[in-house]
C-alpha cells in the first residue's frame, strides 16, 4: 500500500507580510511551520504504516526551503518526500494547487490512500482535499476524526458530521482530510533526523512534472485576490484594574456608555 | 494616601492568604499600591503602627514566603509598568516595576513591543534600536511563567536554563528599594561593594547604614538558602534572594541577552538510572551551547501517563516510550543550525555509549515542539499538585513535600543513590524531576496519609543534613520562605542564623518585613 500525505508550510505567526501586487502571502523570509492539521495527517500515515507496512510519502508544493519541512516529516517517521517548486506555481488558488498536487501524486506513481489536513491555517478554505480527490478520481471523506481500520481494499473511518459522528467504509483508493482532535503528533527522534538529513528529496519543477502551466499558479487560478486587509475589530477587551470598588464603578460607566445600564 | 488603599481583609481577599506552596495564613489588612509613592505610604503607616508586612507578587512561590502570618499584605501586582529602556555597550537594560509578570515580559520582548507611555527621550531612542536590532530575550525561566519579576528577585529564581545563564541575580543590574522605615535605597551593580564583610549603605533619605555581614561561606553549588554573602560582595546581591525580609523592591533593571539563533530541546530516554547519570556527566563537557540539563524519573512518567488517560487537560501529552525508566532533557542553544545538528548527533553518540538508543528521543526544533516539551515539564508539578489536593480531602493534614536541594558535581551519584535507597526503605510514593545539570533535583514525596507525611518530613530533614554534609544547599532556587526555615538552621547552624538575624535587624529594626520567613520566630534575645 502507498500513502501520500499532502503537507503545507504556513506562516508561524499571525502577522504575515502580504505581496502588494498579488495580495497573497509573501512566504520568503517569514518564519514558517508545518500546517498543524497536516501534522496530524502525517501522524495518521505513520501509524497506518506501523500497522500495515505501507510506504509513505510527504508531498508539498512550495518555495525551495519547504524541503526542510519534508525532511522534518521524514524525521517523524515518513519514508520519503517530494517537493513541487517552480515560479510557475506561485500565487495558486485551491484549484491550481490541487491540480499541481494531483500531478505530483501521479508522478510519484499514484497512491492508494491520500491524507490531507482538513484545511491550512493560512487559507482556511478546506477545499484542497476534495478538489484533489476529484482530480485523482478518488472517493474522499472530510473531517475524519479517527481511522479505524485499513485493508488493501478499504478504509474505515469516523468523521465529524454536524455535531454527530458518522462511521464510513470507503473503497480504496481514497482521500481523507483529518482533524486535530485526539491527535498528538509524535516528535522526531535523533535517528529520525539523521534519516531526514540523509534522504533524497526530489524537487520537481513545472517541466519535470509535465504540467500545463496555464493551469498552475496565478495563471491557472480562477480565484484572484482583489484586496487583502486586516478586519476591523468590532469587539474590544478592556481590562479593569484597581480595587473591587474601582472595578465595579468602571464597569458601570462602561455599561452606561454602551447603553446597557441606565 | 488614597482612602481605600489599605483595606480590611475580606472574603474576596481569601486567595491572598496563600500561595502555590498550598499553605494558608491570615492577615488583617491588604493593599495593592500602583506607584512607589503609594507603596511607601503604606510601609510608613505600617512602620508607625508596628504592623508586620508580608510582600506579595504573583504568589507562585513554593516556600510560602508570600503567605502572611498576621498583619498587612503588601501586594505589588498592580505595580506592573515597564518604565524605560537603556542601551549600553551593545546590550539592552529594561527598567520594570516589581509586578510585571514574566510571561508578559517575554511576550513583549519577543514582539518587540512595549507600552512606552511616559518614557523619556533616551528610552525611546533605545527602544527604536531595540526594535531594529538583534532579537533579545530574558534568560531566567522558572517553571511558573506567571511569576512576577519582583517575586523572582526575592527568591533569586532560576529554572532549567540557569544551567547556562545562572539565576535571575545575574540578570539584574539595578534595584530601587524601600526599607521598612520608608527610606528609599538605590543600588546599581558595581557601584557599592562590601569591604571584606563590612558594608556601608547610603539611603536616599540621607542615612548611612553600617552592616556587618555574616561570616559563613556559601556552598559552591546552586544556592538560594538565606542571605547571599561573600567577601567584598556587591550590595545589590544582598537584597536579591532575601525573600522579602530586608526591603521592598519598587523597580528593577533587567539585562537582556541576544537570543540564540537555534534553541532545540532533546529528551533522551533511558532504561536505567545509572545510564542517565553518566550521560549527564558527558553532556556537561559540551560547553556553553548546552542551555539546560533536566531529569525526570519513572515516578513522573507514571503520574503523567495516568493523568493523560484520566484528565482531558493532559491528553495532549506525548506518549512516553514504553520501556523508559527515566529521561534527561538537554536544551541546545546555538548560533547556527549546523552547530545544533552536530551537537545533536553528539548527544546521540553519548546516549549510545551509555547503552541508550537514538530512537528513544524526542527532538524539538520548532517553537511548537518546544512548547510541547515545556508542557510536559510543566505537567509534572501540576499533576503533583492535583494529586495532593485530591488526597487532602481525605487527609487534610498532608501537604506536598518537595525538596529543592543541590550538591556539588562529584556528589551527584551519591545523592541520587541516597534518595532512591531512602524512598524505597520508607515505601513512599514519589516523583523526581529537576535540574540535574546543577545536581539539583526536586524529590516530590506524595503522601497518602498523615503517617506517610510524618515519615516524609523526617526523611526531608535527614536529607537536609546529608546534603549539608556533602557541601550542598537546602534550597537551590525556591528560596527558604517559611516552610524551609528549619532546614536553613540545619545548613548554617545557630551562630550563622544569629548573624543573619542581626543583619536583618540592622535594615529592618522593627522586624516588620516577612515575619516567619527565613527565621520561624524572631529571636529577641539573640538580636
Please outline what is shown here.
The complex is a heterodimer of chains A (262) and B (527). Chain A is an alpha/beta fold. Chain A has helices at residues 36-52, 66-75, 94-107, 128-136, 190-198, 206-209, 244-257, and strands at 2-6, 9-11, 32-34, 55-61, 80-84, 113-117, 139-150, 154-161, 164-171, 174-178, 203-204.
List the helices and strands and how they pair.
The complex is a heterodimer of chains A (262) and B (527).
Chain A: E1 2-6, E2 9-11, E3 32-34, H1 36-52, E4 55-61, H2 66-75, E5 80-84, H3 94-107, E6 113-117, H4 128-136, E7 139-150, E8 154-161, E9 164-171, E10 174-178, H5 190-198, E11 203-204, H6 206-209, H7 244-257
Parallel strand pairs in A: 1-4, 1-6, 4-5, 5-11, 6-10, 7-10
Antiparallel strand pairs in A: 2-3, 7-8, 8-9
Chain B: E1 6-8, E2 29-31, H1 36-48, E3 53-56, E4 72-75, E5 82-88, E6 91-96, H2 102-111, H3 121-132, E7 136-137, H4 149-154, H5 162-165, E8 172-178, E9 184-188, E10 198-202, E11 208-212, H6 235-239, E12 248-255, E13 257-258, E14 262-270, H7 273-284, E15 290-296, H8 298-310, E16 326-334, H9 337-353, E17 361-364, H10 367-394, E18 401-402, E19 405-406, H11 412-426, E20 430-435, E21 440-445, H12 450-469, H13 485-507
Parallel strand pairs in B: 2-4, 3-4
Antiparallel strand pairs in B: 1-2, 5-6, 6-12, 7-13, 8-9, 8-12, 10-11, 14-16, 14-17, 15-16, 15-20, 18-21, 19-21, 20-21
